Amino acid sequence: xxxxxxxxxxxxxxxxxxxxxxxxxxxxxxxxxxxxxxxxxxxxxxxxxxxxxxxxxxxxxxxxxxxxxxxxxxxxxxxxxxxxxxxxxxxxxxxxxxxxxxxxxxxxxxxxxxxxxxxxxxxxxxxxxxxxxxxxxxxxxxxxxxxxxxxxxxxxxxxxxxxxxxxxxxxxxxxxxxxxxxxxxxxxxxxxxxxxxxxxxxxxxxxxxxxxxxxxxxxxxxxxxxxxxxxxxxxxxxxxxxxxxxxxxxxxxx
Length: 254
Ligand SMILES: Cc1cc2nc3c(=O)[nH]c(=O)nc-3n(C[C@H](O)[C@H](O)[C@H](O)COP(=O)(O)O)c2cc1C
Description:
Blueprint: H1 9-14, H2 22-25, H3 50-64, E1 75-81, E2 87-93, E3 96-98, E4 101-107, H4 111-118, E5 121-128, E6 131-141, H5 144-152, H6 156-164, H7 174-187, E7 202-207, E8 211-216, E9 224-229, E10 232-234, E11 243-244, E12 248-251
Antiparallel strand pairs: 1-2, 1-5, 3-4, 4-7, 5-6, 6-7, 6-8, 8-9, 9-12, 10-11
Helix pairs in contact: 6-7
The structure holds flavin mononucleotide (FMN).
Flavin mononucleotide is lined by residues 71, 75, 88, 90-93, 104-106, 110-112, 167-168.
């Protein structure tokens, strides 16, 4: 399946962003919600297991999701920093979580991939209605077998797209991108290649949590914030084999 062709020039012009009055553009100071639905109190949280709390909130967000909402429940902001310490942030999809960490998939040669090679540490943020979760920690590569198994589960069009895109590199236009997609499609079209293999430059990253914060909006900006932290007992070259001490929980002021 080829990607949607570029729209004709007239349609593109009609769809162009309309000009706005710069004076009214920034007048959003009165945009605010009253956070009055629910709370997060110590008595309802297992202070030794933030992943249990994450799971409870994630599943609630999934259950509440419907097509009218602006984002998938597993969409999260991913912040990385380059070698100079400059932060960069984008949205990716969470594809797996457990006690070992939070997994997403991407192109290793993308901007984020390059930054993670330079500085293997990341921060994630989820936003679900009146709740937010922040995760911080070292990042490791997902094993090849795990990444290949996930890649195999993707729709064929997404698999072809992974081969076609040199993610984060400039390209002359939509037509050139469509040509790259068609070339990748042709490469895997022969009957002898019914399965699209995982590109070597594509894979997963696992953010191993050392800090997880749960935020619940409350009236008068008196929000609930419970933060879990833990420290390594013994450092290992690979963060997944690091032995971590127990989690401790602390309330923060809003
Ligand atoms: C809802 C949503 C989900 C996305 N999921 C992913 C994803 O799982 N992996 C990915 O590489 N990019 C994903 N993207 C695109 C990224 O936001 C970003 O444009 C891309 O990864 C390039 O980022 P980089 O140049 O900082 O590496 C998603 C974007 C949105 C809006």
